[in-house]
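INFO batch 0412 | record 1 of 1 | parsing
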Amino acid sequence: MSLCAACRCRSKVSKPSAEDIVFKPLVPADFQPLGAFLQAHPHSLSGYTLAILASWNPIFHYQWAFPEPSTLLLSYSTDADNTLHLLQPIGSLTPAIQQALLHRGRCQKGGLDMVGVEPGFATTFPDFAAHFNIKPAPEHYNYLYRAEDLALLAGRRYAKKRNLIAQAEDTYAWSVERLTPGNVADCITLVNEYMTDLKGPLSASLRNDDFAIRTALHLFDKLPLDGTLIRVDGKTAAFSICEPQTKDTAVIHFERALKSYKGIYQVVNKAAAQAIFNRGFTFINREEDMGDPGLRQAKESYHPVRLSESVSLTLKR
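INFO prediction complete | emitting tokens
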């Protein structure tokens, strides 16, 4: 028997036991081993890339554990609610690890929940999933597009996008650059101006997004990031940050643009898609809409080819 660190009770759980799963805070020294493991086990949702974990780490305080060499566990926390929050386990999930997680979840006062879970997870691990209530999480569905569609904007369905870009061409001239460590500082200048231009109180969501973008830019040379920068008369007017998600899919994590330039979001969206398409990717993931109707409408206006679905799991009490 072993002593469970979560509740100090005696456990007959097979090794690895609940106390053997020791989560470590995510720090830059972990980027290489975690990145290699995530790359070897690609996930359909964007929350399982190294750059997104690193960028949002100041907000979600990610921790990780390898209870076995073939299994990666990721936890996060946003408050002190004494709940064990996990992302979907990556790699294998042996019966011993399943039992250890269930035991630890039952010992936690707040229980255990898992977010960002692929629907097929419950089919792959039915005995483990039977201990959870499973609920669709449409706010976390990822929008997948053909890279060629967004790069060319061909056909009647993209006529409004082309018209906005044509209006921009009549108003100002722009140049396109690849985002590199050498021009990251220009992006930070844009982010500062963008936040200054906002009117009214800032929502917690917007403040967190701003923090994550700044973190991504700060760590740009330490992460597998790429991107596109737009200049108007030499001034940085927009940028887009992306990362390979799978061999055929790139995910766009962040975009910022100065709204004083009409059509600039359509300009940077197309330029980023062209760069991604030219680098050989077939699909572009533009992440989730977070349940925001305006964001959902904007994403649907680019005609996704499919949605990568997500479910949440809550341990039954």
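INFO post-check: The two ends are 24 Å apart (CA to CA).
INFO record closed
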